[in-house]
Amino acid sequence: MKAKTKLIIAAAIIIITIGTLMVMGISSTSGNMVTVQQVLAADANYEDRLLRIEADLVPGSVNWSAEKVELTFQVTDGERKLNVLHHGIQPDNFYEGVEVILQGRYHDSEELFIAESVQTRCPSSYEEDVREQGTDK
Questions:
Q1: In the chain, which ranges are continuous DSSP H helix?
Q2: How far, in Å, CA of 6 to CA of 94, rounded?
Q3: Looking at residue 131, what is its pLDDT?
Q4: Count of beta carbons in the 10 Å neighbourhood of residue 76
Q5: CA distance readout (Å), 4 to 9, 10, 17, 95, 131
Q6: Which of 14, 22, 80, 84 matches a 20 to 30 Å C-alpha distance to 113?
Q7: What CA–CA distance (Å, rounded) separates 100 from 86?
């Protein structure tokens, strides 16, 4: 086999390997986007799968333990409530009425979503900033 042919084969193998690793890495860290109702559905099988959930924080459900660095709360889609446990710090703007974006795994036997990450979104404050910018002109 010629040196040029060997080089082309080696480059193709490297490109295929890198592409495969990229696809596997992206799919294993992104998680499936689901609703609270989908997770809690009786026929759903989301046990121990990486999931992403966007829902509203249930007022009065937040319990923060600074000693354990543990946050427990509930989220809702307006119909059903989901219990959440997060080992980590509480987000700064974590208050009633905020939309919560969770990534983690659901444990059906405990009826508990264990969040690896907790983020918040508060569109009302962003809308206010946009309105203020519009009046400055």
A1: 3-30, 36-40, 123-135
A2: 58
A3: 43
A4: 17
A5: 9, 10, 20, 63, 62
A6: 22
A7: 12
Q: How remote is the C-alpha of 15 from its chain's centroid?
A: 30
Whole-prediction pTM value? 0.67
Residue with tokens 């809308």: 127
pLDDT (tens digit per residue) in 80-134 = 999 999 999 888 888 877 899 999 999 888 889 999 999 988 655 555 544 455 5
Q: In Å, how far are 26, 42, 49, 97 from 123, measured between CA atoms?
A: 28, 32, 29, 11
Q: How is domain 32-129 classified at the architecture level of CATH? A: Beta Barrel (2.40)
Angstrom distances, CA of residue 55 to CA of 76, 97, 100, 109: 6, 10, 5, 22
Residues 88 and 102: their CA atoms lie apart, in Å, by 13
End-to-end Cα spacing for the chain: 71
